[in-house]
Design brief:
272 residues, alpha/beta, 8-stranded mixed β-sheet, 13 strands
């Protein structure tokens, strides 16, 4: 196990979601911490052999190699891009936690008191990654709560529910159907981001049953790289409106993809 920033005992699949700070001790004084904002990101590793994607270079499209994968370990992959950010700090990392998840990383942003829990799914397990995303969007609990004790002395309790659920990767719903529906377990303010090609059209029908609100998704073909996600999350943590977040994401995408702002603006949508 590879750990960064302290002890990180993960117990059970998909146990990560909304974080609730426990009590932090400083000398003889106890301080109750503000509830953080938490995002759970489900990344389906790019896989030339098992996904209906336009083939990418073999080193980027090996769905069994997260460290060099296009959507995880490459320059604009989720883990690498967030690790290089000045605002987000990787506080925990684990390899092969269990099942289809090959790596799991947790990032913390002090400004806004926000966590990102990101999981890299083996490429051929894309259907499971999308299923887990929808279950998270529906607020369906999967495992019991777990605890994280960080090196900085903070104890964190992790239930199995997320405030914001994100899917990153190939739009597998272009290739297969899911055998189940996902009814929201309970009312809430759950939101989702879906960074995949034409995600509004393909994810929309199933997403409606979850009770979650689409914060950001796409209307056409796109590269689901991490600069778009980070721009959107920065706006979300700052409490911006859905339209402001959409414009942030479009601006980042236009800059990295070197396309016009108007073209990028048409690619992203928020709400139904």
């Amino acid at each position: 196990m590879n750990k960064t920033g302290g002890e990180f005992p993960f117990w059970g699949r998909r146990a990560l979601g909304v974080f609730v700070f426990l009590i932090v001790w400083r000398g003889d004084t106890t301080f109750a911490q503000e509830r953080p904002r938490v995002t759970h990101v489900f990344v389906a590793l790019a896989d030339n052999a098992h996904q209906g994607i336009v083939p990418v270079p073999a080193v980027l499209g090996n769905g069994d190699d997260p460290e060099r994968n296009l959507y995880w370990g490459a320059a604009f992959g989720v883990r690498t891009f967030f690790k290089k950010s000045a605002e987000w700090k990787e506080v925990a990392h684990e390899r092969n936690p269990d099942g289809p998840v090959m790596e799991r990383s947790v990032f913390y942003r002090a400004a806004g008191n926000a966590y990102v829990v990101a999981e890299a799914y083996r490429g051929k397990e894309i259907k499971q990654a999308i299923t887990d995303f929808f279950e998270s969007a529906a607020g369906i609990p999967k495992e019991r709560e777990i605890k994280l004790h960080q090196a900085d002395g903070k104890d964190v309790e992790l239930p199995s529910e997320a405030e914001l659920s994100v899917y990153v990767g190939h739009d597998g719903l272009m290739d297969f159907a899911l055998e189940k529906s996902f009814s929201g377990a309970k009312p809430g303010n759950r939101q989702v981001i879906v960074l995949a090609c034409a995600s509004k059209a393909f994810f929309g029908p199933t997403l409606r049953t979850t009770g979650a609100e689409p914060l950001l998704w796409t209307t056409g073909l796109m590269a689901p790289e991490a600069y778009t996600l980070r721009a959107a999350l920065d706006g979300w943590v700052a409490g911006e409106s859905a339209e402001q977040i959409r414009k942030r994401a479009a601006g980042a995408y236009a800059g990295y993809q070197k396309i016009s702002q108007s073209a990028a603006g048409r690619l992203f949508a928020s709400g139904w």
